[in-house]
Write a structure and sequence with these properties.
heterodimer; A: 226 residues; five-stranded antiparallel β-sheet; 5 strands; globular; B: 243 residues; alpha+beta; 10 helices
Chain lengths: 226, 243
Amino acid sequence: MVQRLIDRQPADLGLLRRICLAAVEALSASGSGISVMTADGTRGVCATSDPVSERVEELQFVLGEGPCIDAFADRRPVLAADLSDSEVHRWPVYAPAARADGVCAVFAFPLQVGAARLGVMDIFRDRVGPLSGTEMQTAFTIVEVTVEALLDMQHELARDGDGAAVLDFGRHAELFQAQGMVMMQLGVSIGEALVRMRAHAYAENRRLEDVARDIVERRLRWDGNN
Amino acid sequence: MSTVSAERLATIFVEAADTLVAEFDLLDFLHMLTDRARSLVDAAAAGLMLADERGRLAFMAGSDENVRLVELFQLQNDQGPCLEAFRTGQPVINVDLAAATDRWPRFAPRAAQAGFRSVHAFPLRLRTQVIGALNIFGSSTGGDFDSADVPVMQALADVATIGLMQERTIRRSEALTEQLQGALNSRIIIEQAKGALAQLHGISVDEAFRRIRAYARNNNRRLTEVAELIVTDLAALPGLAER
């Protein structure tokens, strides 16, 4: 469903922009934004659905506070269904400023794979209230698609967005163990290790989980003359 | 379980309800819970799974590595007692694994191969919502649950569920989602750290996990925190970094 919605967006727009527009449609939101953030301090708005969302997204970096920043720091979603409520105490400057731009609720989802942190996706709504159970599920699917898009971009892979089931979070322990092993073998960051594994799987036309199993069982390694 | 004193039982229940402490860590809490559940009925092992937002179960904690592998097998094959308890909301009690091949054709032989003889599973439920399941494995068929054990274990599961659902701001229904998603990601960090340490020292991932847990315990640090440092700043953990 999510993939179809992304495909339906104007083809001349970048993938991240199309994801933002699809998210707005799927979650009956007023806007959305994707920001790239890394542990070494890189911060920047990457794509948004519309100019107002871009301003609200930027605002967090200008003010140094907001759901997006908390979601990144705490490595978990920050679901603020009512910015006018007690949330004001949480973000004394951001909350009134966002409301002045018509944003009444913000749902911020970290874009991450374990310790590999890529950024945050924000969903904005012009009305108060939580995401429904179904909407929450859709939101997490969109988040996974976005994580895959960001990983692919790091390797400039011209993949069609068929990313389904490439990362099945939480189920394939071996995938993440392999990621840790490749990190050590190559001396790269934990995020870069996953990018390399995906590139290898893509080049060899193999499933990522099969590549991961080979790494964990030490049939495949990168530090020798592989 | 008849040998457990009322005092010890009370202590375990207080621990299981104690999620409101300032430095609460969900994964540490779940590990504590599996350890206590296992020792309470003198079982061989206990494992715990929680559902993510899409209703898919994910392995969260186990009393040892052996049980972790069996739990993952259960998830990958989409059959077994935890899945049954989760889907029906009812406990699965005293199943003899040797006679359960019809019920779980793939899971039963695998669990038996891991050394388990019997299995039980309890849903983690609050009113109509089921958020996960607790699995108990026995190493002898003679060590089956008697009728008094079942309500005690279900009560432990229920108290833990209430604890989980009220953690932090009770008034916000989103708090559990935030907490669960955070814990699922912590689980991934732990797997990444196991791989990294296994590679560094040329040891198995199981041995790597034992070292991570021991390090966290001995240095009074959270499991998640230690795992994250392993993959982001290993030099900060001299005891683990040395070859």
